[in-house]
Amino acid sequence: MARSDFELLARELGGDPPETFHALPQDGLASLTAALRAARARQKKQLDEALTKALEHVPALMRLPVRKVLGL
Fold it and tell me: Is 12 exposed, middle or buried (0-12, 13-18, 19+ CB in 10 A)?
């Protein structure tokens, strides 16, 4: 197992993976890292869509200030 694959997974998780992950084959670590990235990308897209829909309930004149407050 390449140390870099384990480090990439740790970085993606935001911390050290469980020790049992050391038993995963190198391609398993790469697949898991890719799956986590894809899941986070989907989650971000869905959250952005939900936020956009939620802003439709805010009066039109207030949308820009609300976006600024939310940092959008």
Answer: middle
Nearest one of 49, 1, 37 to 22, comparing CA atoms: 1
Number of domains present in the structure of the chain: 1
What does the alpha-carbon distance between residue 44 and residue 41 come to, in Å, rounded to a whole number? 5
Instruction: Round to whole Å and give the CA distance between 35 and 38.
Output: 5
Q: Read off the pTM.
A: 0.70
Range of the structural domain that residue 46 is part of? 3-70
User: Which residue bears the tokens 């600024």?
Assistant: 68
The set of residues, in sequence order, having a beta carbon less than 8 Å from that of 55 and lying 6+ positions away, is 63, 66, 67
Tokens of residue 52, six digits: 């956009």
For residue range 25-51, list pLDDT tens digits in order: 888 888 999 999 999 999 999 999 998
Which candidate, 28, 62, 23, places its Cα nearest to that of 8? 28
